[in-house]
Amino acid sequence: MTYEIFNPEQLGPAKGWNNAMLAPAGGRVLFIAGQTARAADGQVPDVGFVEQFALALDNVMAALEAAGGKPEHVGRMTVFVTDVGAYRESLKELGDVWRPRMGRNYPAMALLGVTELVDHNAMVEIETTAVIPPTMHADDAPVMA
Questions:
Q1: 41 Cβ partners below 8 Å, 6+ apart?
Q2: What are 64-115's pLDDT values in tens digits?
Q3: Which domains does the chain carry?
């Protein structure tokens, strides 16, 4: 499944995101709640910004995979951060975190600076929407799962 990507010239070059992505017909929409670096015990580890981004993205990937999705199914992502400066200063390191998890898939994205997040100690929260293709049965007839 591939999205049709739209990056109109009047919006300037998209670098590390796409401006609009159109999902193919027949997919299932998956809404993933905002994920922080929270571990299974409910605690956010006291680690740096890049490490928290990596853990939050790992949590997004866990929810995506649990629903049968893959990184290329992600069409939209909103990233909330408590320190926009830390985000800007970490772009290379964030790319190193991104590629093993998302490859060269760059969804339509927004980054928002916020004063704090609900999870104590959290610096990053990632909310995601994916479109997962219908599952296939042995007779290759598409069905909605």
A1: none
A2: 999 999 999 999 999 999 999 999 999 999 999 999 999 999 999 999 999 9
A3: 26-134 (3.30.1330.40)
